[in-house]
Amino acid sequence: MTKTEPETQTDSEAIQYTADVVAVTPSRHVLLIERGWPPFEGAWALPGGYVDAGEAPYVAAARELAEETGVLVPVGALHQIGVWDQIDRDPRGHFVTFAYMAVVPDGTQATAGDDARTARWWPLDELPDELAFDHADIIRAATIPNS
């Protein structure tokens, strides 16, 4: 019997970790960004992005929210709503996202930054027809009890 080399992961097989934020107001508006890059370039999505090496997902969530929208939320104000890890949720490969919710005051200003073309508050009952990735599912989980 010969010893075989252990399998190694290629970049396309490596798991990537991201963090997304469902920022909502008491008047039931949610903050979305228009994506400036593929995949889903031009589509509306939750603010979020990569978790850096050595960074906690909730810290990445607050950082990405600030970088993409200018909205500052203390990490203690973020509440984890779930982890989305379906193999096919991102066309770039295997991405696992930690999703958080934050309630921010009505009238909070958002300004597009980083890789967002636009940042805009949307009424929860008037969201765009299609959102990037599985972000409609994440919003639903954050805003509908027991979903």
Structure commentary:
There is one protein chain. This protein has 147 residues and is of the alpha+beta class. It has a single domain, classed as Nucleoside Triphosphate Pyrophosphohydrolase. Helices cover 15% and strands 30% of the residues. It has two helices and seven strands. The strands form two sheets. A four-stranded mixed sheet has the order 4-1-6-5, with helices on both faces. A three-stranded antiparallel sheet has the order 3-2-7, with no helix packed on it. The longest helix has 13 residues, at 57-69. It is globular and about 40 Å long.
CATH class: Alpha Beta
The shape is globular
Mean pLDDT: 91
* CATH architectural designation: Alpha-Beta Complex
User: Rg, please?
Assistant: 16 Å
What is the number of helical segments per DSSP (H or I, 4+ residues)? 2
Strand arrangement across the biggest beta sheet: 4-1-6-5
What is the CA–CA distance across the termini? 52 Å
Low confidence ranges: 1-10
| Name of the CATH homologous superfamily | Nucleoside Triphosphate Pyrophosphohydrolase
Present the secondary structure layout.
Layout: E1 16-24, E2 29-35, E3 44-45, E4 48-50, H1 57-69, E5 79-84, E6 95-103, E7 116-123, H2 135-143
Parallel strand pairs: 1-6
Antiparallel strand pairs: 1-4, 2-3, 2-7, 5-6
Summarize the structure.
With 147 residues, the protein is an alpha+beta fold. Helices cover 15% and strands 30% of the residues. The chain is globular, with a radius of gyration of 16 Å.
